[in-house]
Every structure is written in structure tokens, then in C-alpha cells.
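hiii so um. not sure if this is the right channel but i have a protein structure encoded as C-alpha cells and i wanna go backwards to a sequence. like what aa goes where. can anyone help
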């Protein structure tokens, strides 16, 4: 009987020592996990802005905003603009990225941004223009000869016509 009490007492002592070590270990793991989580938040960047129509100065809701890695053009994240045209993309890695904004019947907007650790990169108002307006500004009109080929005009000038 005495040996049984001694064995139980020894087992309880060992159990208490193991529990103390496990408590210290779990406390260490919790603190370590929190520290890793906090440092991971410092390593991420955010991208913020709003999409507006350049002609009417109105916000565009549901525009698609894509973030691509510059080195290989792989999509990292995407979002859509809210009703006020605003957007925010969080948890982006630092480095150079391509931002692509797309909206139906509008020309795509692209920009290269250099994101820094733990900072919010503010794009401000992202101007997008309708495709019709963009084409209107690109059309070349000829008055003199009716021909719009610049090489043709250069040839006529050399020939003395």
C-alpha cells in the first residue's frame, strides 16, 4: 500500500511538471503566433482609389480592377468598384505591379505601381474614357488630296506634285 501511494505521488509530481512545461510551451507558441501575424501585416501593402468617367465626371460602379505582377503578368488579386466608384485591395506583396481597370464600352486603364511594405498606395481618381471618345480623338482627316497615307504625301512632295 505504501508503494502504491508513493507511485501515485510520483505520477502526480511528473504530471504537474509536464503540465507546467506544456503551459509554458503553449504560452510561447501563442506569443510567437501573434508576433508572426503582426509582422506579416507589416509586410503587406494596399491599393486604393476610385474610378471615374473623364467626360461626365461621374463614378463608375462595378468596374473591374486587376492587380498583376509586373515580372510575369500573373493576376495577384482583383476587385470591383463600389457604388461610389471606390475600391481597395489589401494584402498585396511589395514590389512592382500592373494595375488594370476595365469597364464595358470604356478603354482599359493601365498603370505600373511600386508598392512598399506596410503602406497604402493611393491611386486617387482613376480616369477612364469611353472607346468612342478615344477613337474620336485618334481619327486622322485629310483635306488637301483626299488621301490620308503620309507616305503617299511625302512621295508627292518629292516628285514635285
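sure thing!! here u go:
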Amino acid at each position: 500500500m505504501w508503494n502504491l501511494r508513493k507511485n501515485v505521488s510520483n505520477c502526480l509530481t511528473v504530471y504537474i511538471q509536464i503540465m507546467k512545461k506544456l503551459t509554458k510551451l503553449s504560452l510561447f507558441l501563442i506569443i510567437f503566433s501573434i508576433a508572426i501575424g503582426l509582422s506579416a501585416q507589416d509586410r503587406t501593402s494596399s491599393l486604393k482609389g476610385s474610378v471615374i468617367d473623364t467626360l461626365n465626371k461621374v463614378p463608375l460602379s462595378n468596374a473591374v480592377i486587376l492587380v498583376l505582377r509586373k515580372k510575369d503578368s500573373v493576376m495577384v488579386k482583383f476587385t470591383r468598384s463600389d457604388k461610389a466608384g471606390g475600391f481597395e485591395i489589401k494584402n498585396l506583396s511589395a514590389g512592382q505591379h500592373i494595375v488594370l481597370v476595365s469597364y464595358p464600352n470604356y478603354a482599359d486603364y493601365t498603370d505600373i505601381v511600386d508598392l512598399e511594405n506596410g503602406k497604402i498606395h493611393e491611386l486617387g481618381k482613376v480616369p477612364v474614357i469611353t472607346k468612342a471618345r478615344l477613337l474620336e480623338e485618334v481619327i486622322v482627316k485629310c483635306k488637301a488630296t483626299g488621301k490620308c497615307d503620309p507616305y503617299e504625301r511625302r512621295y508627292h512632295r518629292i516628285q514635285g506634285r
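oh and The chain has three helices and seven strands.
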